[in-house]
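ERR on first pass: missing label on line 2. Operator R.T. fixed the label and resubmitted. Corrected input:
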Amino acid sequence: MHAPRDLALMTADVLARLRARRPRVHCITNAVAQNFTANMLLAAGAVPSMTLSRDEVVDFVASADALLVNLGTLDTERRAAIDLAIIAVGAQVPWVLDPVLIDRSRPRRELAATLASRHPRAIRLNDAEFRALAGVEPSAEALARYAATQGSVIGLTGGRDVVTDGARTIAILNGDALMAKVTAMGCAASAIVAACLAVEPDAWRATAAGLMLIGIAGEVAAGAAHGPGTFAPAILDTLHGLDAGTIVQRARLEQ
Amino acid sequence: MHAPRDLALMTADVLARLRARRPRVHCITNAVAQNFTANMLLAAGAVPSMTLSRDEVVDFVASADALLVNLGTLDTERRAAIDLAIIAVGAQVPWVLDPVLIDRSRPRRELAATLASRHPRAIRLNDAEFRALAGVEPSAEALARYAATQGSVIGLTGGRDVVTDGARTIAILNGDALMAKVTAMGCAASAIVAACLAVEPDAWRATAAGLMLIGIAGEVAAGAAHGPGTFAPAILDTLHGLDAGTIVQRARLEQ
Amino acid sequence: MHAPRDLALMTADVLARLRARRPRVHCITNAVAQNFTANMLLAAGAVPSMTLSRDEVVDFVASADALLVNLGTLDTERRAAIDLAIIAVGAQVPWVLDPVLIDRSRPRRELAATLASRHPRAIRLNDAEFRALAGVEPSAEALARYAATQGSVIGLTGGRDVVTDGARTIAILNGDALMAKVTAMGCAASAIVAACLAVEPDAWRATAAGLMLIGIAGEVAAGAAHGPGTFAPAILDTLHGLDAGTIVQRARLEQ
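pass 2 clean. output:
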């Protein structure tokens, strides 16, 4: 049912839908990530907005097709915006939680725990952030248990990405070491997951599609890059020009 | 009087003045656009500053040669900075209004209407933003009427740019589709218009020069780019190295 | 004792330590510089964080190996963060002051003077900023006297960089004119100095190493760039791949 080839074809189809429907993705995200995230969303076919102000965030979220809540550079304005946005987003519009660096800050960890209980459609994080959020090592079982308990898809990224909703689990082996050398790459991946959720109602499939797109674009881009500096424009070019054939040929999945 | 060739030569001359005089352009602009806008101003020969704080914005504006007011990511600090800056800018120093995404937010639309009545030398916007600001479709007549009523030059950008002060109207056909795939390209265009206003007292000519520079740099850069990622550095390179011959040869204008 | 070749070898060794130890550098820096600074730190082997919030900055600084305090886009949140961070940083962890554009703003100049008296391990600035801070022309004698009086290493950058702690002075002639055409290049240099201070206890050597790395990476990158746009990714690539042989061969130092 979720044979690797089917998931790769599904991912190609999600990308086609992004380009056709151009979903609006409102991002409450950190100051370091805003520009790169906006450019990654545009490269994928989506339309980004980034406003944080309490006067305006409700208007933006009300006309958005998906919401990203990223906890980086979490200041007073961002805290207020997150609350307003999650209330405004309503049950129909999916939102993604990215609990950036919660392993480095206690108040942020507490906020992440509260937000995780407010039913994000997906949570995208790395090993250290999962440990800080769930209080356990990120084994396949722990990830599945946490996803099932929370009712959110977990998208864990690293050398090997894992996507689970508790019942279904897939590992994505695509990607390149240069991805860890460009700031905000994980933040942008979360935004792409939000965009995919806007066009694919099955949150597990949408999250897998988003991380597969980033992983495949990353490894193709690495072939064109001379280091982390040229890698960033290269992944934007690659994502913008990615075709179904490349996705199907490159996808490396493990059940 | 405004034959296309004359306007192209004027634009080349404005660029030469930017490089010789290095005007200071203070930008109150959105968080997504700050870095790219600063780099575009530097590439054109201008000197950017970006401070928003109410303690400092007056000092920065007082020593600036032009001011940009961009309404993106409009938070409390930016609202306060805009008020202080417009008071500080004085009658001699030109300022540009960029009413970003006012079609998405009612409070921002109201602020834009108030600011438009405070005599910006130019307003740079797109179709949807003009509709939200003026309440009518952006026909050539409506643009000219709005410009004449407000006493501001209107620079409407899109597939075809239109610059009008009510009496004079020119369409600029330069540009490339990749320009819509890089975030903050319009914001940077507004900053370049502000820089041109610092060295060219005729606001209509300055606005036309700014949009012509961006359009021509954009289409030259598109030839060197592999997608939106490499397009962003390419437009910076092109603007930095642009020469009079290329401007005169490439300019595609319609009266 | 500080023969040019020894200093170049020391710089290569500092870079090797950066890559091996991956020091955490917490940056309170301006909105324009955050993304590029994070990418420069990653390219050098360090791990950046950028949070400003008063709830979190203490947690981040407490687990950091060095701190950067950059006064650009100085708003209320940044002012509060600076105070908290300098208290939290403790005597063992080095911090760097970058008094950006204090020649343009009186309140910022006053803050810089106060911060300079709180014993930053190094102060990185340009000619105009030194004049505004010290009230005298940046002659070799004035720089040495100011460094000795303050007890901080001074790293003055420009066409020719000068590093002095009062007793020892070296000039670094590496670099390229394109470095002045990319926003936040100086800000990123200060962050690299902070990273070097995390792995090299002699602050004069660390500051010289940081500025040598940036200058050498800059001139190698200029050879691969077509203008300021492609120069920014090129300097990231170059810094990421820089080897000891290139450093020793390229270093141009004057005592």
